[in-house]
């Protein structure tokens, strides 16, 4: 989360926003990142999302190695 909210990423987002088709999506992404940075439980929420996506059983999750 710290890396996503860094100045380096902000520069990259600015570059992406210079492309009109991407501007709205990048603005929405930046708003979501800003919301996460002020949440006290942001780290816990990100960990829960990761767990839900990759650590559940193959019937409940998108396992990265199951796509082969």
TrEMBL record:
Pfam families: Nitrate_red_del. SUPFAM superfamilies: TorD-like. This is Chaperone protein TorD. It comes from human gut metagenome.
